[in-house]
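Narrative of accomplishments. A recurring question from our advisory board has been how the design workflow behaves on a single, concrete structure rather than in aggregate. To address it, we present the structure tokens for one chain from the evaluation set, followed by the sequence designed for it. No filtering or post-editing was applied between the two.
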């Protein structure tokens, strides 16, 4: 009999600990081995409970999720899924947690059940099973100081970056965008995209659309974080945004991202249609739309992530004459949807994370 995945729940709310425990216990492959109301108690229990995966509330008294996560990743690296509130502060703390080594996050159902726990049952169970397969790395003791220095440097460079962006905007051609890059990414995506986006030049000759599986409220904060550290413009896609060279549009959480052709420009369409393979936004939906409108002037890139979203999108891009890429196993946090895309036979080239930017620039020039 296959060994169950041992999960520890860390949350200051007794109700949330009970709800999560009830939901997880419904799955025969998962066993909740213990819980804790704050990080300090959690650290005392981890040695005895030896959990395979930990769910961690971001904001807690005594010792919060960020400090607890940091100590776990230094002392006993374990896959941690953050449980975050639908707030700007919650989003920013969650992204910091991902930088510190958390493998993923889910949004907390609120106190009045606007998002009941049953609505996230499939999501959290799937993420726990995925997290159990991830080999997390030990965190250096100077990681927090390194992050602080990086954020300080980013703030100092922001003014110069904004001046460069303003200049680039004046130089953007008013002609209809001729080439498109569509990127799909899930688990491990925020950190992977941080290794790519800041290295893309603002004069890149293609529009770029990204679907990163992420709930509403978080995609805007994520786009702003990327925009702060990049010369190229990055924003959350809104209805009617013009797709243009030198602009990256990230699909809005809980909405599909499509393209509509107008006389003088391609613009974005934001729809709330049914989920596809459990996901909204869907990589498949976005890629199929880019393939339909840009045909053989499309580059599709499928990156780290669980499940099979994006596999059909990659197939359609290839069938329309576009170019298809997949991130390799070595540099992927989860070799899931990119693995399935490769196995489908519709991927032209497999690339490591550090190869992506030079390969994209070369391909765009040749399109």
């Amino acid at each position: 009999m296959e060994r169950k995945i041992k999960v520890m729940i860390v949350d200051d709310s007794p109700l949330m600990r009970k709800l999560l425990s009830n939901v997880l216990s419904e799955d025969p492959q998962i066993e909740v081995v213990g819980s804790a109301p704050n990080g300090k108690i959690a650290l005392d229990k981890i040695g005895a409970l030896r959990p395979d995966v930990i769910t961690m509330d971001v904001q807690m008294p005594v010792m919060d999720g960020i400090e607890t996560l940091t100590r776990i990743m230094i002392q006993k690296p374990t896959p941690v899924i953050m449980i975050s509130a639908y707030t700007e502060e919650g989003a920013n703390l969650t992204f910091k947690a991902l930088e510190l080594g958390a493998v993923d996050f889910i949004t907390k159902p609120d106190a009045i059940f606007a998002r009941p726990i049953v609505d996230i049952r499939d999501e959290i169970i799937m993420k726990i099973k995925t997290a159990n397969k991830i080999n997390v790395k030990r965190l250096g003791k100077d990681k927090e100081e390194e992050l602080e220095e990086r954020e300080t440097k980013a703030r100092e460079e922001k003014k110069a970056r904004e001046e460069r962006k303003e200049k680039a905007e004046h130089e953007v051609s008013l002609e209809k965008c001729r080439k498109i890059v569509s990127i799909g990414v899930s688990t491990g995506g925020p950190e992977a995209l941080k290794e790519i986006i800041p290295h893309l030049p603002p004069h890149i000759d293609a529009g770029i659309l990204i679907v990163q599986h992420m709930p509403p409220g978080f995609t805007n904060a994520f786009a702003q974080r990327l925009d702060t550290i990049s010369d190229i413009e990055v924003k959350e896609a809104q209805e009617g945004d013009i797709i243009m060279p030198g602009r990256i549009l990230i699909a809005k959480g809980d909405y599909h991202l499509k393209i509509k052709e107008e006389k003088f420009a391609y613009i974005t369409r934001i729809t709330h249609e049914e989920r596809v393979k459990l996901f909204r936004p869907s990589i498949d939906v976005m890629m199929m739309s880019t393939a339909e409108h840009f045909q053989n002037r499309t580059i599709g890139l499928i990156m780290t992530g669980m499940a099979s979203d994006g596999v059909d999108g990659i197939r359609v891009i290839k069938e329309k004459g576009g170019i298809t890429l997949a991130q390799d196993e070595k540099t992927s946090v989860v070799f899931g949807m990119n693995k399935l895309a490769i196995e489908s036979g519709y991927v032209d080239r497999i690339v490591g994370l550090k190869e992506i930017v030079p390969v994209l620039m070369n391909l765009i020039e040749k399109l």
